Structures are given as structure tokens and as C-alpha cells.
């Protein structure tokens, strides 16, 4: 079962909140017992902070839930472990939205997404990733640019995760594939890569394309990604944005976008029809 430090902290926080609410204890009372601020309890319960063992013991005594100690202490230990993305601290500040998303992605079992601006990051070739980053962040160059590209490519490790790789269902708007990318053959190479994914029956990735021919649809608000987990954790949605995007956990918001994605998914091109379409689009990109 996949996990990650960020996911372990989220699971720990969720369980502590559930136990507190089941015991009828107010956040202010928990803060008083730990001799800390209410905001610290909030950070613990939202997975932004990891409690120490004595703090876990204190809270479990308050909640009359001693039997949960072993599991929660284990989660706390997992939450303090280092992850590959921690080495990119200059790009991913701990606790930032993007840091949390990549950390949750590392422990997720399923990623469903709609992309309307660029090919999804996990599906990008190195040359296409370079073109996208260069275009979207023109002031970045040199070692900083190379670091951003390495980080984007290293995210793909979730697709090779053993024994359970991240499963991806990527819905891409036709405009993404029609849009030229800077550099000779970059877009053709990227589309060929997508074709290989479609043809590979063993790939954990499923790609579909939403064609112009369906007209207006329910995903005109922009791209987003929905993460699902095997831990009983609720789904989360990440709204894409050039300045970092936003992470949302409210069940009604996640469900609304999930329903819209499901509806559009059924209208999208797949299989042989998609392969034929990809060849046609690739031929429009002149070397």
C-alpha cells in the first residue's frame, strides 16, 4: 500500500480530529491540555504539523482512546521521514500547496485529471517539459531551470512504484495538442509519447482527448487533478495555476468536479479513434 510522509501526516491528523470530535472535546480544550495555541491543534489535524509522542499520549488520554496509540505513533514516525521532494526545498517550501500536493500524489493510488493548458506533467517528455517551463517562467534559466526540469521528471517515479504504481486517468483538451511547443520536433515527439502510452496495454496510464467537436462542456473552468487513496482517506482536488494552484478537500467541491470529469470522460476519444486522431495532429506540427 502506497504512502508518503505528507499522506501519513494527513491520515494522523484526520484520525486525531475524528477522535476529538467523537469524545466531544473542543479544539480550545485540546489546546489547553497541550498548553499550545488553537492554531497548532488545527495544523496537527490538517496534517501540516506532526505531534510528538508525548503530545499524542496527552491527546489520547483526553479523548479516552488509548488503543489508538500504536497506529498514531507509527503514522507520526512516517510523517517525519524524508522524501525525494524534500531535496527541492528551494522550489517546494514545506507546507506549501505544491509541496502538499506532490507529497499526497506520492502516496495516492489514483490520479484523475483534466488538462486544458499543457500536457499533464506525469506524461511530459523531457524536451516538452523544458519548453513548458521556459514558456511559463521566462525569467528562470541556468541551474534553476535544470532543477525545475529534474523535479518534474522525478515526479514520474510514482508511475514505477512497486508493487502498486500510481494509476492515472488523464483527460486532455484538444487545444493542448494543437498548440505548438518551442523547439524542432518537440510537439511531434510529445504526441508520439502519448500514442505509445495509448498503445501500451500494461501502462498504469489511460489517456483520452476531449475534441473540439463536442462543443461546450462542463470543464471550461480550467484544469484540475483529483487524488484518491487506499487508506480510507477522502479524495482531494488540486486546481492548477501558474502561481502554485490551490488544494481543496471539501467533499462537495471534489464530488462536483469528479462528476463533471466523469461526464466529459465518456465524451472523449479513446482507443483506435484516439490513435488515429493523434497521428493526424502530429502531422500538423511542421519540423
From TrEMBL:
InterPro entries: Cro/C1-type_HTH (IPR001387), DUF5753 (IPR043917), Lambda_DNA-bd_dom_sf (IPR010982). One of its GO terms (molecular function) is DNA binding. PROSITE patterns: HTH_CROC1. Residues 16-73 form the HTH cro/C1-type domain. This is Helix-turn-helix protein. It comes from Pseudonocardia cypriaca. The lineage of its organism: Bacteria, Bacillati, Actinomycetota, Actinomycetes, Pseudonocardiales.
Amino acid at each position: 500500500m502506497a504512502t508518503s510522509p505528507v499522506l501519513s501526516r494527513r491520515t494522523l491528523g484526520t484520525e486525531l480530529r475524528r477522535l476529538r470530535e467523537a469524545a466531544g472535546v473542543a479544539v480550545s480544550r485540546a489546546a489547553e491540555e497541550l498548553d499550545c495555541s488553537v492554531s497548532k491543534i488545527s495544523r496537527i489535524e490538517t496534517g501540516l504539523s506532526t505531534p510528538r509522542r508525548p503530545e499524542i499520549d496527552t491527546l489520547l488520554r483526553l479523548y479516552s482512546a488509548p488503543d489508538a496509540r500504536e497506529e498514531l505513533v507509527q503514522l507520526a514516525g512516517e510523517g517525519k521521514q524524508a522524501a525525494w521532494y524534500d531535496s527541492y526545498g528551494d522550489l517546494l517550501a514545506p507546507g506549501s500547496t505544491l509541496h502538499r500536493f506532490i507529497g499526497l500524489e506520492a502516496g495516492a493510488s489514483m490520479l484523475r485529471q483534466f488538462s486544458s493548458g499543457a500536457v499533464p506533467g506525469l506524461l511530459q517528455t523531457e524536451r516538452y517539459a523544458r519548453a513548458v517551463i521556459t514558456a511559463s517562467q521566462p525569467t528562470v534559466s541556468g541551474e534553476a531551470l535544470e532543477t525545475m526540469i529534474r523535479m518534474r521528471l522525478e515526479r514520474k517515479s510514482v508511475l514505477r512504484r512497486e508493487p502498486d504504481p500510481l494509476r492515472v486517468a488523464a483527460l486532455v483538451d484538444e487545444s493542448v495538442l494543437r498548440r505548438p511547443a518551442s523547439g524542432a520536433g518537440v510537439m511531434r515527439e510529445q504526441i508520439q509519447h502519448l500514442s505509445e502510452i495509448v498503445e501500451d496495454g500494461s501502462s498504469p496510464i489511460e489517456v483520452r482527448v476531449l475534441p473540439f467537436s463536442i462543443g461546450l462542456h462542463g470543464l471550461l473552468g480550467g484544469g484540475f487533478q483529483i487524488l484518491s487513496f487506499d487508506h480510507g482517506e477522502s479524495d482531494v482536488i488540486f486546481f492548477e495555476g501558474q502561481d502554485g494552484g490551490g488544494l481543496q478537500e471539501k467533499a462537495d467541491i471534489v464530488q462536483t468536479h469528479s462528476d463533471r470529469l466523469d461526464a466529459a470522460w465518456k465524451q472523449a476519444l479513446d482507443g483506435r479513434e484516439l490513435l488515429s486522431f493523434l497521428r493526424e495532429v502530429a502531422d500538423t506540427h511542421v519540423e
